[in-house]
Design a protein that fits this description.
By secondary structure, the chain is an alpha/beta fold. It is globular, with a radius of gyration of 21 Å. Helix 5 links the parallel strand 5 and strand 6. The protein has a domain of 204 residues: Tubulin/FtsZ, GTPase domain (Rossmann fold, 3-Layer(aba) Sandwich), CATH 3.40.50. The chain has a ten-stranded mixed beta sheet with strand order 3-2-1-4-5-6-7-10-8-9, sandwiched between helices. Helix 3 packs across helix 4 and helix 4 packs parallel to helix 5. It has twelve helices and ten strands.
Length: 369
């Protein structure tokens, strides 16, 4: 699947740059292009300047600073209403013919991204009717979730994007930070990498690749599009595969190694379930998708079948699509998507706290006698 990624605001622009790095890796490892172009839209010239070193796949677009002192999402929405058409005109529309979907990225807590993403998403949907428009929304950290402006911006952002985008990938920033810190110091680069990595195998497996990478059941672009709708979570996990038995047996004929590899596939699936981008219940997902990646020499039919059967159990026989891909060398990895999720605690919590946040903001703005 070839994406055009549009990052809005500080957070969105940094993630858009990380998608460029992911695309470079996909090109180097599999020889496919998964990114048509990436755009970073922001009102901070210093931040945009720093991103230009990423390469010519990333184009920066500077917005004027919002008028007035407020940093609520309405200011970001107004800014995008005034400048959205100019942003679209700056983009290379001729490249959009080879685009399979648009991915708009923003933090829900700020001003530019949280307010602007829904306005720009609507413009894309009006102009490119036959192409899906997806959103990737990063929710605030726990320490930020008690700040009235962040609560209000997040609730407004979620409400508006839910009415606009075809599917919304939600990322709990606190969860992402915890997982990134396990691997290394949780820098901004590490956090952005943690957010983008789950898309890597999925995007490249759906493109036309060298036949040596093709599994027994391939995931196509249509499978992804049909699986994405409404609130969406994505998870990724992997497990190392040992080289046991290679010196004595052909892997495909060795019963013990087949059993071990199936166990590794299920281990990777368990890891993916534990690392969903936002906490959710699989039984609340009306659509789901899985992708199993293993080295070709280690593949067997039971691996993908076991992952698929488990997904159908977890979703109470919901609409499940899936496949396998032989584009890795020494591990089994599983990418899971739960979509059209009917209930999310995080979203409900922000909606419920929004009215109190509005009252607190109003009291701050009211001059004291």
């Amino acid at each position: 699947m070839k994406l055009v990624v549009i990052g809005i605001g500080d957070c969105g622009s940094n993630i858009a740059a990380e998608f460029v790095r992911l695309a470079n890796r996909a090109r180097a490892e599999t020889g496919v292009d998964v990114l048509v172009r990436s755009y970073a839209i922001n009102d901070d010239p210093a931040q945009l300047n720093a991103l230009r070193k990423v390469g010519d796949k990333l184009i920066t677009i500077q917005l004027p600073a919002p008028a007035g002192p407020g940093r609520e999402s309405e200011a970001g929405a107004e800014m995008m209403r005034a400048n959205g058409d100019r942003c679209l005109a700056t983009m290379r529309a001729g490249e959009f013919f080879e685009t399979d979907a648009f991915m708009l990225v923003a933090s829900s807590a700020g001003c530019v991204g949280s307010g602007g993403i829904s306005i720009l998403a609507r413009k894309f949907k009006e102009r490119y009717v036959n192409k899906p428009v997806y959103a990737l929304i990063v929710l605030p950290l726990t320490a930020e979730s008690n700040v009235p402006a962040y609560v209000y911006n997040t609730a407004l952002c979620l409400k508006s994007i839910d009415k606009t985008a075809d599917a919304i990938f939600l990322f709990d920033n606190e969860k992402v930070m915890s997982e990134a810190s396990i691997k290394s110091a949780a820098s901004n680069d590490a956090l952005n990498r943690e957010i983008v990595t789950p898309f890597f195998d999925l995007l490249r497996a759906s493109e036309k690749v060298d036949p040596k990478f093709l599994g027994t059941s391939n995931i196509g672009i249509g499978d992804i599009v049909q699986s994405l709708n409404g609130w969406t979570a994505i998870g990724y996990g992997k497990a190392q595969i040992s080289s046991y038995g290679l010196s004595l047996f052909k892997r495909g004929d060795h019963f013990e190694s087949k059993g071990e590899e199936t166990v590794k596939a299920m281990e990777a699936m368990s890891s993916a379930l534990a690392h969903f981008s936002i906490q959710c219940r699989m039984e609340d997902a009306r659509k789901a998708l899985y992708l199993l990646c293993v080295p070709g020499k280690n593949a067997n039919i039971n691996m993908a079948r076991s992952v698929g059967n488990r997904m159908r159990e977890l979703t109470n026989n919901g609409e499940v699509r899936g496949g396998d891909f032989y584009g890795v060398k020494d591990h089994a990895s599983v990418t899971l998507i739960a979509s059209r999720i009917t209930y999310l605690d995080k979203v409900k919590d922000y909606y419920e706290r929004a009215s109190k946040a509005v009252e607190e903001l109003r009291q701050k703005e009211t001059p004291q006698p």
